[in-house]
Amino acid sequence: MRIQCLQHVAFEGPARLADWARSRGHTLATKELFGSEPLPAVEDFDWLVALGGPKGVYDEQYPWLIAEKQLIEQTLRAGKAVLGVCLGAQLLADVLGAGVWRNRHKEIGWFPARRTSSAAASAVFRSLPPEFVPFHWHGDTFDLPAAALHAAESEGCRNQAFECGLAWGLQFHLEATPASVKALIHNCAAEIGSGPYEQSADELLRDSAHFLALEPILDRLLDRIAATASRVLNDVVR
After folding, report:
1. CB 12 within 8 A of CB 51
2. How is the chain split into domains, by residue range?
3. CA distance 122 to 133
4. Mind listing the pLDDT tens digit for each residue in 112-146?
């Protein structure tokens, strides 16, 4: 399967998502939108992944965000899968007609999330544990798109994950690695405040078990998205 990542800043790449793709024999390409790379054509990939970044969905100083949202919409209309992570999930929600807004509290660190009862209806999200501890780094959140399935929530942010057709949005980071978190700290440490859901830079890297616990959760989730996307693509070919 041809996976196309859209990267918004140099320090926030696919991280462990790239390891998963390599281990499963998929090809993964990355377009660095911050470097003015042209967007790919829908025909060039089977699955689109919009990554995170410190920008906002409506940030007018980055006009390529408009073109990116158009590509997301075209991808969904073509019957291809889209996964959005953090900013990518907010862009996906916006494309699907939902609002994106400043959350009451920032979430930066390792905080529990819960699988919702609705997740049982999703072939992808039923793979989530009832409770797990993903990595968070965000200040914005999104409303659920119309007809979307609400899949996960946390104490600090109700809408943590959703599914809408072939679109999956994750507010949290299952792809986090020590290297990716160090890069965020190096570039965005000034964003860390003293809110109830904000941890210090030392706390973010203190427990390596957090990263290890994410690996099987991410693998199961991506395996199921890949299976769904492949089945749809095969149906189109037939």
Report:
1. yes
2. 2-237
3. 20
4. 999 999 999 999 999 999 999 999 999 999 999 99
